Predict the structure of Nicotinate phosphoribosyltransferase.
Amino acid sequence: MNTADLGLPVAVPSTALFTDHYELTMLQAALRAGTADRRSVFEVFTRRLPEGRRYGVVAGTGRVLDAVENFRFGADELDFLRRQGVVDEPTLAWLADFRFRGDIHGYPEGEVYFPGSPILRVEGSFAEAVLLETVVLSILNHDSAVAAAASRMSVAAGDRPLMEMGARRTHELAAVAASRAAYVGGFSSTSELAAGFRYGIPTIGTSAHSFTLLHDSERDAFTAQVDSLGRGTTLLVDTYDVTEAVRLAVETAGPELGAVRIDSGDLLLMAHRVRAQLDELGATRTRIVVTSDLDEYAIASLAAAPVDAYGVGTRLVTGSGHPTASMVYKLVARAESPDPAAPLVPVAKKSLGGKTSIGGRKWAARRLDEQGVPEAEVVGTGEVPAELSGELLQVPLVRGGEILGREPLDTVRDRHLAARSRLPLSAMQLSRGEAVLPTEYV
Amino acid sequence: MNTADLGLPVAVPSTALFTDHYELTMLQAALRAGTADRRSVFEVFTRRLPEGRRYGVVAGTGRVLDAVENFRFGADELDFLRRQGVVDEPTLAWLADFRFRGDIHGYPEGEVYFPGSPILRVEGSFAEAVLLETVVLSILNHDSAVAAAASRMSVAAGDRPLMEMGARRTHELAAVAASRAAYVGGFSSTSELAAGFRYGIPTIGTSAHSFTLLHDSERDAFTAQVDSLGRGTTLLVDTYDVTEAVRLAVETAGPELGAVRIDSGDLLLMAHRVRAQLDELGATRTRIVVTSDLDEYAIASLAAAPVDAYGVGTRLVTGSGHPTASMVYKLVARAESPDPAAPLVPVAKKSLGGKTSIGGRKWAARRLDEQGVPEAEVVGTGEVPAELSGELLQVPLVRGGEILGREPLDTVRDRHLAARSRLPLSAMQLSRGEAVLPTEYV
C-alpha cells in the first residue's frame, strides 16, 4: 500500500501534492521537448548560515526518505490535476506510473554543515529529480532550522536535560517534526504525544496553571495531583505565591516530591530562592524545572543557577529567530542529450544579486589539522585528493529508487552530538560569529 | 467515519494526539479528584501583538473546527497511551468515549484582533475543554501569524496580485495551512498543489532556472516552454543575461507573451528596464512578475515600479519575522463544584513577570466613533452596555459539540478585507507602531 508516515497516528497516502505547480509544468514541457529524460544532478545546499551561526545541523533526511518512497500520483491526485488543467494527458499518464528510480546521496542525518555543503544530491532523469524539489526542501529547511536551534540550546544546557514543549506555538504537524528535530539536536523529551507515538521520543508533562485554578485552593490542586500522579510528580508553583506554593508542595508530597516547575518571573532569582527553601524543608532531592520563554541565551544565563532541567517552546520550534534553513535545490549538471551514455555537463545560473551557484556534481570532505580537528569543509567537482578520501561526507541514501539510508533516531542523535563535539571549540560559543569552518572549493 | 482533513489528498483519523502530555495527566488527576466535570471557560487571546504591528488577523478557525470534530481517541491512540503509561485505566476508559460536547464562540475567521481580544472561547467541562488546548493553539498561532504577514503584504501590494510561493521554506503540511492563511490575508494564488487540492486556492507556476539550464540554450528552453504551455506563459528571464532573455522571450512567444519573471538582482531597476524593453519590442501587454525574497517592505518599495504581480515565499510562510502569534489558552472561569447549576467564578493566575490574565467570561465589541470608524476594542466581563450590543464580535462556532461555523474560504477572505478596510487609516502603515485600536477592559 502506498502510504506515507507524517507523524500521524496512521500512515496516509502520498506526498506527491506537496509540490509546486511549476515542477509539473516543467515536466510537461520537457516531456514534449524530449529533454525530460536527460540525466540530471540536483544538489541541496545553503548559500549562507543564519547570521551569526557557527554551524548548521542536517535534519529531516529520514523524513525525506519516507517522502520519496511515497511520492506517487494516485487517482485522487491525477483527477485533481486533470480537473484543474495543471498538465496535459501525456503528462498525467507519465505521472500515473511515476516512482523515483534514481539515486540520492547526502550527508548523514545529524551531521553538521556549512555554507555550500552539498547536503543532498539527487540524480536521475530531469523529470524524476525535478519533481522532488519542493517536498525535499520543505522537510530539510524546516527540520534543519529547528535542529540547529536545538543544538545551540543543548550546548548552553550542558548536562542538564532539555524538554521540547513548543507544539502549541507551531503548526500541529510541524510540531511533530520539530520534536524529532529537537531530539536530533540534543533534546531529551517532548511534551507532544504525537511525537512520542511516531518517533518513540519520551513524552513528559504534569500540569498547567489551569489545573490549580480549577480547584478551590492550591492545596486542593496539589493534593489532587499527588494523589493521582504520585509524589514523584512535578508541581507547578507560580500560580499565586511561589514561596507559599513551595511550602505547600513539600507539605503535600513530602521530601520525595519529584520536582517543582517555575514558569514565570525572574528565573535566576527564583531558582536560587526556591532551592534554598526546598533544602531548608528537607526536600534536597526535589528538582527545579524552569520553562518560561527560554532560548539558548536564557539557558546559558541560568548555568550557575540551581536548575535541573529546562523546558523550551516557542524559540525552539521557530528556530530561535531563524525558522527556515534557506536551503535551495539546484540543477548542477545534466547530460547534453537523453542518451544515457551522454556525459554530464556542469551548469549554473549566472550570479545576479548574490544568488551564486557552482556547477558540477560535487563531493565534500572535512579536512582535519594535525590534531585531528576539522579545519575546513572542502567541496570539489573533480577527482578527490588522496589525503581527503578518508574524510568524505556523503553516503548513499537511495539507490535505483530503493531506500538504503533508514536508521534509528538515536543513531542520528548520537551522530550529531559526536560531530558537534569534534568541531573547533569556538563552535560552542553562542556569540555571533562566522561559520566555524571555512568552505573551500577545489 | 472519524477522519480529519489536514490538507492531504485524503482525510486521516484523529487529531487527538496533537496534544501535550500534561493535558491528559491533568485530566486523570481531575477525574480522580472529582473536579473534571466542573463547568469551565477557557479563552484564547494574545497579550501583545508582534512588535510594531498594528493589528492581528484571526486565521485557522475553520481548521480548528475540523480538529475539534475529529478529536477522538481510537484503538491506536489508546494503545499508545496505555503502553507508555501516560494515564491510568479509568482515564483511558473516559477517553475512549470522548467527544467534545461543549460550546465554542469566537471572532469570525478573517476578523482583525488586538491585545486581549478573546478570539476564541471554549466552554464545557474542565475535562473536555482542557484537552483541546494544544491543537487549538497550534492551529491559531500558526495560521494567524501567516495571515497577519499576508495582510500587510496585501496592503503594500495594493491592487496587484500576490502569489504565495513559500512551500519549500516551511514544513510540508504547514505549507498547506500557510497557503490557506495567505489567501485569507489577501493573496490570490499559491504555488502549492496540495493547497489547491484541499482549499480550491488557484495554483500557479511555470518554470524554474533548472528548466533553462536543462536545455542546450535559453532559446531551446523558451521554445520548449512556449510549445508546451502556450504564448500566454511566464518565462523566467534571469538565468543568464536579462536583456538578452527578454529579447529572446518576445522573439519566441511574440508580443502575446503572458509575462516575464525576474527572480534576482535589483528588482526596481530591472523592472523599469524590462518594461521599457518589452514596450520597445511591442510586447506592451506582457506583464512583469517579481519573486526574489520579497516582504512587505520590498513590495512597498516597488509600488512605483512597473511590476504586475508579486510572488512571495520565505517571509510570508515565516510570518515576516513573527512565525507564531503567541496566543495562549487560559482558564478564566469555572464552577465551584461539579453541580451543573453551580455559578461560574472568575479565576486568573497572579501576574508575575508580565504574564497577565484577566479572569471572567468575556464579551468583546468594537466601539465606533461618530464617523463609524472603530476607536477601541472593548472587552468586558459583565453586562454588555446597550450602546455596544450591536457591535459584539464573537459568534457561535460550536454548540453542544455540533459544528456551526463552517464557511467558504472566500467568505473569510472577504471578511478580512472588509474588516481591515474599516480600520483607521494608520492600520495600513507598514512602519512600526502601537496597536491601531486600544483595548479597554470594562
Notes: Chain B has a mean pLDDT of 95. The CA atoms of residues 16 and 71 of chain B lie 5 Å apart. Chain B touches chain A through 115 residues (CB under 8 Å). Residues 133-157 of chain B form the longest helix (25 residues).
